Structures are given as C-alpha cells and as structure tokens.
Amino acid sequence: MARNQATKGTRRGIRAPSGVRFFGEVVSELRKVTWPTRQETTRLTLLVLVVSVAIGVFLGVIDIAFARLFSVVAGT
Questions:
Q1: Among 2, 4, 44, 69, which is least packed by CB within 10 angstroms?
Q2: Are 15 and 9 in contact (CB under 8 A)?
Q3: What pTM, to 2 d.p., does this model score?
Q4: What would the pLDDT profile of 14-48 be if each residue is shown by its tens digit?
Q5: How do the domains of the chain map onto residue ranges?
C-alpha cells in the first residue's frame, strides 16, 4: 500500500529530521499558550507560599504533639 505525501507530514516533499520537527512543534504550541499576567503570577505565587507555610506549621504542631504524647506514654 503506497503512502500519500500528505499523510507523511512532509512539506514540499522534504521531510525534516524528527528532532527538528519536534522542537518546531514545541515552539508552535508554546505560541498558542495563554500566559498569565505578572499580577496573576505574583498573586498565585504568594498563595502557594502562604499555603505551604500554613501546612508546614500545622504539621510541625502535630509532630510536637505526637512527640510529647509518645514521651508521656513511654514514661520518659
């Protein structure tokens, strides 16, 4: 069964190496991306930092509580 030139992904009969074609497609897709604004990026970064710190503090308190509980149970 013969392949059609249009189905090979060629342009004018010349086929680019797969690595070149891959990076060309990557650049093409990146141009389609809707990038966030600086304000939106700053706001979301601060949100991630605040949530990370809050979870860290919460887990630290839980860790201290369990350490004291186990020391009481162990009698040390």
A1: 2
A2: yes
A3: 0.58
A4: 676 788 889 999 999 999 999 999 999 999 999 99
A5: 38-76
